[in-house]
Structure to design on (853 residues):
């Protein structure tokens, strides 16, 4: 699919914009996903599309790449009105999307993935060479013969981008591109993105709900809320809190952003400002004791290597660490989803059987799981069913569920946790991510737990929902629950925790109270290096 | 003890052991080489048995009117008809592929049983054609190259399937949809259409395989002719770890065991009950599958229907 766009290059400023979306409207049933939305993408510019989950930005982009047909509105490319009927058609018009969840087949190699979706004879030499050319040109170095399954997230995204660029699109859409990337990988991505825009003369739309990202990378920004454009203009003339306000429609306390900037600018000598932090009560007995937990994966990999940790009632303990250092297993053990080789789990001094279904929940450990779709809720059940699925006894007698009681109690919880849905009978999938997370939260907290384990509780949520979740965790701690916060987002840990521990290779290798946070040392610990002689880590670095 | 070894020597130097083994292997190869493509695309094509049986019956009927080539053509069409039902039920209407497959197996057996009763098919055996020179190799020479000529069709078929799967764009797309249909969809592949195509291919090849078996083995059509070989072919694919090479090895292994079952009693060794021996292929299948099933990685989306928007 060679496009013939070369004649457009040069003298671009005066010619019509690459993409104009005019008055796009899309209904899903009674919900208006997009309401007369206008969006203009220009060549050589990165255009940020900012909005909370459910603001309509994904739907808008799906209209652009042909996955959704709009009810009303017009799509113009270079001033000409076109009908985009499906992704293949969009690709023919020079529009390509780098997806949030990668569109790569893991069992295939890089070049095979790049070739997918093309037509004509399969010429592997030609494709390999083309991959080489593109990666050279944009600095996206990659070996075309590597298998995707062996590559880390950042490299996979490079493949994804190369796959798009190979068809030489004029318009590139990035949907939450940094959600799976480390900070350095994100930085690299944006540098490459800048090259794609300036050297390739592409128009780029960057969908995101991360404010710092939008501020530092984009030329123009459009903010959506409830399916409408609430603000649009040049990024240069705006700042974080103004964007956030436009995005959620009210002022949010940008603690997280402050914390984030604090980390970057002050290099740790200034502690993060305390915001209504609960004081650690003088409890003598930990709510949760983990003693020397060890777990080995089916492939023989050490998942937990002697993890020891106490959580006292009324405190939030943040487990910081780079992804894949045992966080998931720790969460699984505390949800009775994983077996351990050795070690003990004690709740209020009483040992709990590990690996026995439901034992942890019964002992008073509530869990907000890492993947809410996978293990947090059942999408095809109603909100009410999801609220009582873990403990149906509370709404049933002699094994029969009392529907009226369930609805009444569910309605009560929906109000208490301000869950935005059409009622207790709304199917779970009809809720936005933030509201699904509220349902999980409501279910877990309504058991009056002794311990609350929150694994990546704000992953994929927008600013408003993050604020809500943070408040809930704080309130739980104030109410005397021992909160264990497992997160790979350092800002979140710094913002919420009373005490921070660092997990590395399945062990806790360092600990510091919030008042003594030393960012430099924290960073070192997360990288597996000890900053002082008193802490030792297993395995010598080579 | 020396008796035992002399018996072994007897059996394994017997030319008909290898001849029968090849005949049995080749019918599995026809079926399994199609099946491996369907499975790579994500379908466990249980109706393989029905495709083979329909092919065998069509070959019996077709030979009388259009000769052996015509019979094989009709066998391919008969297999394709069964495949059409399987493919469109499971990859257009998203019906459960196992249920559809099992129903087809029972249905085709019933239809064929009914039709055989009404018109008596005659003998359809195709005479042997000797390939010069190659057939002179001791033991395996005659087994491989002094057979009914329809058997030789499998020799170009297997490399052709390999080329199709590993060297063409279609093959790349087939491998992709069996691993990650969602990613393939996003990349612009028509997942269910491709899956239907792999089943059509399987149907045609398996139908020809059924026809071959009729012509090469007994020459007489009965509804028990295929007798579970479709399932054994599926087992051969699993045994082979979803690779074509492994599948061929699986077919040879199962074919050899099947042939031993025939050869041992025919040489007069009665130490093992023939009825007990007849179970051997199935026992070997189960043992092989439990041994290999865990060790190999199946296509990630195997046996999962693809519906847009569902994970």
């Amino acid at each position: 699919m060679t496009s013939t766009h070369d004649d457009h290059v040069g003298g671009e400023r005066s010619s019509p914009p690459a993409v104009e979306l005019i008055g796009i409207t899309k209904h899903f049933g009674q919900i208006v996903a997009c309401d007369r939305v206008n969006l203009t993408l220009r060549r050589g510019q990165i255009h940020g599309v900012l909005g909370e989950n459910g603001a309509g930005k994904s739907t808008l982009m799906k209209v652009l790449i042909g996955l959704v047909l709009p009810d009303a509105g017009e799509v113009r490319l270079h001033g000409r009105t076109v009908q985009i009927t499906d992704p293949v058609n969009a690709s023919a018009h020079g529009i390509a999307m780098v997806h949030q969840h990668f569109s790569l087949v893991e069992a295939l190699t890089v070049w095979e993935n790049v070739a997918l979706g093309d037509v004509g004879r399969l010429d592997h030499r030609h494709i390999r060479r083309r991959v080489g050319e593109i990666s050279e040109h944009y600095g996206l170095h990659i070996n075309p013969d590597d298998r995707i399954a062996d590559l880390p997230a950042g490299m996979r995204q490079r493949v994804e981008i190369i796959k798009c660029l190979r068809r030489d699109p004029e318009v590139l859409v990035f949907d939450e591109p940094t959600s799976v990337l480390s900070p350095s990988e994100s930085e690299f991505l944006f540098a490459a993105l800048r090259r794609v825009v300036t050297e390739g003369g592409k128009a780029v739309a960057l969908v995101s709900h991360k404010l710092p990202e939008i501020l530092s990378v984009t030329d123009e920004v459009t903010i959506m809320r409830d399916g409408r454009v609430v603000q649009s203009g040049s990024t240069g003339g705006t700042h974080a809190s103004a964007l956030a306000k436009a995005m959620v429609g009210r002022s949010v306390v940008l603690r997280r952003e402050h914390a984030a900037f604090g980390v970057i600018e002050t290099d740790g000598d200034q502690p993060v400002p305390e915001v209504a932090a609960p004081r650690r009560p003088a409890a003598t007995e930990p709510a949760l004791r983990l003693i020397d937990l060890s777990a080995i994966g089916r492939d023989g990999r050490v998942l937990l290597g002697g993890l020891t940790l106490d959580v006292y009632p009324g405190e939030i303990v943040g487990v910081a660490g780079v992804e894949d250092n045992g966080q998931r297993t720790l969460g699984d053990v505390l949800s009775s989803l994983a077996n351990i080789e050795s070690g003990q789990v004690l709740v209020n001094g009483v040992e709990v059987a590990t690996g026995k279904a439901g034992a942890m929940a019964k002992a008073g450990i509530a869990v907000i799981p890492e993947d809410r779709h996978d293990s947090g809720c059942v999408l095809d059940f109603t909100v009410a069913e999801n609220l009582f699925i873990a403990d149906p006894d509370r709404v049933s007698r002699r094994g029969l569920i009392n529907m009226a009681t369930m609805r009444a109690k569910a309605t009560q919880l929906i109000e208490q946790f301000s869950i935005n849905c059409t009622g207790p009978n709304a199917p779970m999938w009809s809720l936005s991510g933030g509201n699904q997370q509220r349902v999980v939260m409501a279910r877990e907290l309504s058991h009056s737990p002794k311990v609350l384990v929150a694994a990546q509780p704000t992953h994929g949520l927008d600013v408003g929902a993050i604020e809500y979740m943070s408040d809930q965790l704080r309130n739980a701690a104030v109410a005397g629950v021992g909160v264990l916060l497992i997160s790979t987002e350092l800002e979140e840990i710094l913002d919420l925790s009373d005490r921070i521990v660092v997990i590395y290779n399945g062990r806790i290798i360092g600990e510091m109270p919030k008042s003594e946070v030393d960012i430099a040392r924290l960073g070192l610990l997360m990288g597996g290096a000890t900053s002082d002689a008193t802490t030792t880590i297993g395995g010598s670095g080579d | 003890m020396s008796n035992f070894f002399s018996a072994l020597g007897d059996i394994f130097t017997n030319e008909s052991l290898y001849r029968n083994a090849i005949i049995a292997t080749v019918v599995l190869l026809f079926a399994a080489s199609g099946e491996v493509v369907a499975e790579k695309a994500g379908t466990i094509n249980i109706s393989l048995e029905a495709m083979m049986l329909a092919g065998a019956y069509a070959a019996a009927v077709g030979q009388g009117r259009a000769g052996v080539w015509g019979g094989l053509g009709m066998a391919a069409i008969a297999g394709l008809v069964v495949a059409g039902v399987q493919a469109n039920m499971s990859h257009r209407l998203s019906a459960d592929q196992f249920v559809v497959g099992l129903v087809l197996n029972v249905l085709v057996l019933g239809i064929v049983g009914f039709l055989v009763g009404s018109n008596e098919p005659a003998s359809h055996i195709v005479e042997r054609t000797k390939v010069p020179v190659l057939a002179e190799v001791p033991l395996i020479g005659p087994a491989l190259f002094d057979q009914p000529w329809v058997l030789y069709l499998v020799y170009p078929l297997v490399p052709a399937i390999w080329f199709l799967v590993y060297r063409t764009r279609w093959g790349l797309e087939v491998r992709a949809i069996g691993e990650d249909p969602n990613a393939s969809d996003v990349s612009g592949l028509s997942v269910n259409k491709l899956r239907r195509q792999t089943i059509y291919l399987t149907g045609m090849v398996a139908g020809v395989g059924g026809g071959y078996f009729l012509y090469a083995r007994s020459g007489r059509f009965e509804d028990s002719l295929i007798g579970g070989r479709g399932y054994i072919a599926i087992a051969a694919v699993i045994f082979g770890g979803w690779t074509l090479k492994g599948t061929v090895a699986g077919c040879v292994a199962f074919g050899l065991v099947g042939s031993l079952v025939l050869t041992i009693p025919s040489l007069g060794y009665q130490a093992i009950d023939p009825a007990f021996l007849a179970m051997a292929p199935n026992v070997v299948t189960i043992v092989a599958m439990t041994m290999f099933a865990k060790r190999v990685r199946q296509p990630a989306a195997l046996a999962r229907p693809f519906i847009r928007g569902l994970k």
